[in-house]
Amino acid sequence: MTQPTVTNRIKALERSLGLPLLERLPGGVRPTRAGRSILEQAREILRLSGHVRRIADA
Predict the structure, then answer these.
(1) Residue 57 and residue 50: Cα distance in Å, rounded?
(2) What b/e sequence results for 6-44 when a residue is b if at least 16 CB atoms lie within 10 Å of its CB, and e otherwise?
(3) What pLDDT shows up at residue 2?
(4) Which of 44, 45, 17, 21 is nearest to 33 (CA)?
(5) Tens-of-pLDDT digits for all 58 residues of the chain?
(6) In terms of Cα–Cα distance, which of 20, 15, 24 is closest to 35?
(7) Helices and strands (H and E) in the chain: how many
(8) pTM (2 decimals)?
(9) Interacting residues of 38 by C-beta distance below 8 A, sequence separation 6+
């Protein structure tokens, strides 16, 4: 995925949720409090989906 694609998808997600996920700084970005919380949940979803996949493959 290209950087502009990633940026556009993050901005679309922020619009959809109605809150910023990243704090844009002169030297880059850092996650907001909401962004950190959502990232934790997203990681858990990926972990569980991998678990479901392993069960289905067994």
Answers:
(1) 10
(2) eeeeeeeebeeeeeebbeeeeeeeeeeeebeebeeeeee
(3) 96
(4) 21
(5) 999 999 999 999 999 999 999 999 999 999 999 999 999 999 999 999 999 999 999 9
(6) 20
(7) 2, 2
(8) 0.75
(9) 17, 21
Q: Which residues contact 17 (CB under 8 A, 6 or more apart)?
A: 34, 38
In this structure, the chain runs to a length of 58
The amino acid occupying position 14 is E
Q: Residue 50 corresponds to which tokens in the numbers above?
A: 């991998």
**51's tokens:** 């678990």
